[in-house]
Amino acid sequence: MSQLTDRTIVIVGGGTAGWMTAAALARFLPPGATVRLVESDAIGTIGVGEATIPQIRLFNAGLGIDEDAFIRETQGTFKLGIEFVDWSGPGSRYLHGFGTIGRGLGLVPFHHYWLRHRAAGGTTSLWDYSASAQAAAGNRFARDPGRPELPSGIAWAFQFDAALYAAFLRRYAEARGVARIEGQVVDVTLDGASGAIDSVTLEGGARIAGDLFIDCSGFRGLLIEQALAAGYDDWSHLLPCDRALAVPSANAGPLTPYTRATARAAGWQWRIPLQQRTGNGLVYCSAFLDDDRAADLLLANLDGAPLADPRPLRFTTGKRHRAWVKNCVAIGLAAGFMEPLESTSIHLIQSAIARLLQLFPGDRVAEADIAEYNRQTDREWQAVRDFLVLHYHANGRDEPFWRSCRDMAIPDSLAHRLELFRANGRLFREGDELFAEVGWLQVLLGQGVTPAGYDPLAGGLKPGELDEFLALARRHAAQVAGRMPSHEDFIAAHCAALPRNMVAA
After folding, report:
1. pLDDT digits over 365-396, tens only?
2. Helix ranges (DSSP H) in 277-337
3. 3-state secondary structure (DSSP) of residue 313
4. Dist. CA 343–CA 439, nearest whole Å
5. Pick from 230, 259, 262, 218: nearest CA to 328
6. For a 10 Å CB count at each end of the chain, is N or C smaller?
7. CA distance linking residue 47 with residue 162, whole number of Å
8. Half-sphere exposure for 350 (CA within 13 Å, toward CB)
């Protein structure tokens, strides 16, 4: 990398995306670079993404953040997966759990042995072999369930207050030299020769110049779209929900170590348990459900009393045609929007930051770096899109909205995966795409996509050996989960949140 001495990076917008970016740049850029973040207290943040996936642990660890301190200050809880309720019809449920399920043998993934056993009359559930699923079912959690000589199969993520996380990272970033500038951007000046961004002007006339600009301005895309016309890839024909309502409620019932996504008549409802409240929301399609009815539906299905009025959000699912244009990179909602069905919002911020650091410009912005950044971004977003579309397409509900989702044309890439799995249960991960085979496996089986066969190499075990192999895997999962304390007890012992009036300013 060329020297970054005297280079200035300007981040426009705060919130989760802005302060995650600022914290990472403060941590990983060499001395000499200047990082400034412009945000206005008058402009609110969307605040989506209270639930995460396990990769967030890598981001926090890279910053050197203590996990207990982070959980405590963000009123967080632990997450072993996402429970999907009623997606295949009333009363159906399954867990997209984190971590492993069983263990492969030789060249054959574990689920093929389970499929062989089931074809012979076996009645066990795939999730009987998942320690994460067993722990989630019992509202249990621990980082280290013991027996270090045997991998536990457990992986976890977090559920937290996104606004508190942004504030936490702001303190981290400012302590490491990031300068926050209060103000609202009213104009963007482009260089007449190159077309790159030269500076932004704030209300009141202050001008902020920079070498690299990072757009974290949310849906507006103040730099990437309004100034640089990056274009937008509209995916609403594949993911037709276009509105959401969000509302916090009082905690009720046990503090579950998982997020819940419950299918409703024209969309789905989320439930995210935090230490001092529960986050709730309804994602829906306005062509099938009006706003007033959506609010009634959401409020009627809360576990506890609402703590505010539902907050509306309108969106078009998709992404910028180019996430990096000239000397501007869009991160977060400025780059695009995927509904939070699989808790990918914060991860897409995280991966964009990692990609930027890998391709960070020195004394000039290279077109080859821009092209590679955009290529990787496109591939990642398309893979996440296909995974989300699977949930809608492979549904078992009878309402008009769900029938339309079942009948819609799907991307060839997803159709191929479905055909491959339906034939013989085969799953393959493309490169470093986000969701691994075990994630696809759980959603496919959980939503009723059943393979006709299995890998013939799974026939290498004798029937008695197969029974013993599966019994050992099932017993191991149960033992790992059984060694864990309750989720609430673990939090109380390690990372209970301070009362709200004592949270660090």
Report:
1. 999 999 999 999 999 999 999 999 999 999 99
2. 291-300
3. strand
4. 13
5. 230
6. C
7. 6
8. 19
Calpha distance 70→166 (Å, rounded): 11
Residues 273, 256: Cα–Cα separation, whole Å: 7
Q: How confident is the model at residue 431 (pLDDT cuts 50, 70, 90)?
A: confident
Q: What does DSSP assign to residue 51?
A: B
Q: How far is CA 374 from the centre of its chain?
A: 20
Q: Give the CA count within 13 Å in the CB-facing half-sphere of 37.
A: 30
The amino acid sitting at 263 is: A
Q: Are 153 and 130 in contact (CB under 8 A)?
A: yes
What does DSSP assign to residue 138? T
Can you list the positions of beta strands (E) in 229-333? 232-234, 243-249, 259-264, 267-273, 278-284, 311-314, 318-320, 324-325, 328-330
**Which residues have a Cβ under 8 Å from the Cβ of 356 and sit 6 or more positions away?**
21, 214, 329, 331, 373
Which residues, 6+ apart, have CB-to-CB distance to 55 below 8 Å? 157, 347, 350, 351
State pTM to two decimals: 0.95
Question: CA distances (Å), 367 to each of 16, 199, 271, 373, 427, in order?
Answer: 28, 21, 43, 10, 35
Strands 318-320 and 232-234: antiparallel
Q: What pLDDT, in 10s, does the model give residues 43-72?
A: 766 554 589 999 999 999 999 999 999 999
DSSP character at residue 140: B
User: Residues with catalytic annotation?
Assistant: 79
How far apart (Å, rounded) are the C-alpha atoms in residues 118 and 115?
5
Handedness of CA 372, 338, 126, 57 (dihedral sign): positive
First to last CA, the chain: 37
Q: Looking at this protein, which amino acid is placed at residue 243?
A: R
